[in-house]
Specification:
With 336 residues, the chain is of the alpha+beta class. It has helices at 7-17, 97-111, 118-124, 143-146, 217-222, 228-232, 280-299, 309-313, 320-334, and strands at 2-6, 21-29, 40-45, 70-76, 81-82, 90-95, 127-132, 156-161, 164-169, 184-185, 239-245, 253-259. β8 and β9 form a beta hairpin. The N and C termini lie far apart (58 Å).
Length: 336
């Protein structure tokens, strides 16, 4: 059912929702950008509709709501261990279509990849997703090429038009929070991007000779292995483990799961100092082929959702979409 509200009424609904959920949306952090006079758009907890940034793309994805940057898995002592207390509240997340598609990719890794991660599952089961439509394409987006410009798996849809809130409720779980309000039923279409300035062409078949292509050498000199592209990406899920021992008692502490990056030094390092991908060009090759080749062989669709955040954040102006577009010509070059 689709309804129209004024902002005051919708804020009352958010207040009701906040009793049972933490409500997250992209918000503007003043002065928190790359430079002191620039802002950053990041996901944070909100209390009213005015806090949500509808007009610009967020610099970071929503994924740290599902998989924390640092997550304590359990506490331990000499002879026992205990898991942290479970968060009682669920979460409501306002996000765009590309990010909605990335939820499916994260679910693949944590729930359908041969095992179910119990820590992730507990959080995931309590999350409701509200889609924010895109009236136009943003810089560096290529969601149309990746088929992620439209979504059908969200629990609700929201848009603002002439200072009114239009909300399409697709999940019965939310009905109780709207019952006390006078509901004006309306009809409206969801906004979605039909064309991006950036387009990518992914070859149907990748010749394995692409592995030794000279196309990767460029990134050996350009990439600085900072890992920013992985951390802003909504589908990167790699992590490492850390055991933290307390100073007061060296036999007690906690085990943490911490985000990791396939682009940084030490990611593939093994006992004896051996590393699979020491060269930064090799790391770039791994990331690109995983996003648009390996993952599709496993799941039937690409891992990359075309949000373009990796291009936005790279301090060396490396374009992931341009790299993808080099694959076809690189294959032809290798086949000569």
């Amino acid at each position: 059912m689709a309804y129209r509200f004024n902002k005051e009424v919708f804020n009352k609904i958010i207040e009701k929702l906040s009793k049972d959920f933490k409500v997250y949306a992209p918000i503007v952090l003043k002065g928190k950008g790359t430079f002191s006079d620039t802002d950053s758009i990041k996901y944070g907890e909100i209390t009213n509709i005015e806090e949500i940034e509808f007009k610009e793309k967020s610099n970071f994805s929503y994924k740290e709501i599902l998989i924390s940057i640092t997550q304590t898995l359990f506490y331990f002592t000499e002879d026992q261990w205990i898991e942290p207390k479970e968060e009682k509240k669920g979460a409501i997340v306002f996000l765009r279509s590309c990010d909605m598609h990335s939820v499916k990719r994260i679910d693949d890794i944590y729930l359908r990849n041969g095992f179910e991660d119990s820590y992730y599952k507990k959080i995931r089961e309590k999350v409701i997703f509200i889609l924010i439509g895109c009236e136009h394409s943003f810089d560096n987006c290529f969601c149309v090429s990746m088929g992620t410009n439209k979504s059908e798996n969200h629990d609700g849809y929201i848009k603002i038009f002439n200072n009114d809130i239009y909300f399409n409720m697709l999940n019965g779980k939310l009905t109780q929070y709207f019952n006390d309000e006078h509901l004006e039923e309306v009809y409206f279409k969801e906004d979605y991007v039909k064309e991006n300035h950036n387009k990518v062409n992914i070859p149907e078949k990748l010749d394995l000779r692409i592995i030794n292509s000279s196309v990767w050498k460029e990134y050996s000199s350009r990439c600085i292995a900072c890992g920013r592209c992985n951390f802003v990406c909504p589908t990167c899920t790699c992590f490492t483990m850390q055991d933290i021992f307390y100073k007061g008692n060296k036999n007690s502490g906690e085990r943490r799961r911490v985000w990791a990056s396939c682009q940084v030094d030490g990611y593939t390092e093994m006992a004896g100092g051996h590393s699979f991908r020491k060269d930064k060009g090799e790391r770039m090759r791994f990331k690109v082929l995983h996003k648009v080749y390996d993952y599709k062989k496993r799941w039937g669709y690409h891992m990359c959702v075309g949000c373009g955040r990796c291009d936005d954040v790279c301090p060396e102006y490396i374009s992931f979409s341009h790299c993808i577009n080099k694959l076809e010509s690189a294959i032809k070059e290798e086949n000569k």
